[in-house]
User: Fold this.
Amino acid sequence: MTEMTARPRPCFTTIRALYGELTEAERRVADYILSDPGQVAVSSIHDVARASGTGPATVGRLCTKLGYAGFPKLKVAVAVEVYQTPDRDGIDVAANDRDSDVIRKVFTLAEQSLRDTSAWIPATDVVRCAEILLAARRTEIYAVGGLSIAMAHVFQHRLMVAGVPCAIVAGGEQQETLAAGLLGAGDVAIGISKSGVTARVLGALETAAAAGARTIGLSSSPGSPLSQITDLTLVASAAGDPGWSHPPASHVSMHALVDAVYVIMLRRRYLEE
Assistant:
């Protein structure tokens, strides 16, 4: 799988994103990695297994689930993050922060989200998304909630500038289901859901797929139901305190992914003819 950069896949972001899909034993290993990454970076697979109360086979399975070809690759990713990732106290917004601290932390979160997404997303997925959209006869976007709707408008604008007809459908479950059912072969349905579990978005995409349309997801949750029912899902990292329902700068990496698709589309349509 070709990555957009040579950096290892971001380990901490991947663990948090896939945590709900791990077994109890795998979670113990994941918890140990997150709690003492510096020690993990200099440990053997047997050391990590003992420290987490599991076995080497469990550590190996976790490596595979996280997308690493063995424990040595995981160690490299952990070491990179230990070196590059700021302490949580340095990026989480606190009640007693000065205004200047808040501004710095928001920009730091945005930078980290962009770095993580660049390392995470395969370039082939971005290119494939652009090519699917360029071939679309008709495109519709389904989204629920403030930030998702805002991202839908950004995506719609980019598609229309690139010459792809696009409409946003967000008038309620009944309207979304009816619209999705009118799609067919040659059409594309895009679902935007940060969590990847928004029922209305999932329902619209399933209806569109049943009608013969291609489906694309945009999310911050790899392995979510959204990614399991779509032909292709682009996953953007959202660094930040999970206690926030909408972490500061959480939309920045998603916006960057949309722009990457947009630029590929422009190249294909106008520069490579």
The domain at 11-84 is CATH 1.10.10.10 (Arc Repressor Mutant, subunit A). The first helix runs from residue 11 to 18. Confidence is low (pLDDT under 50) at residues 1-6.
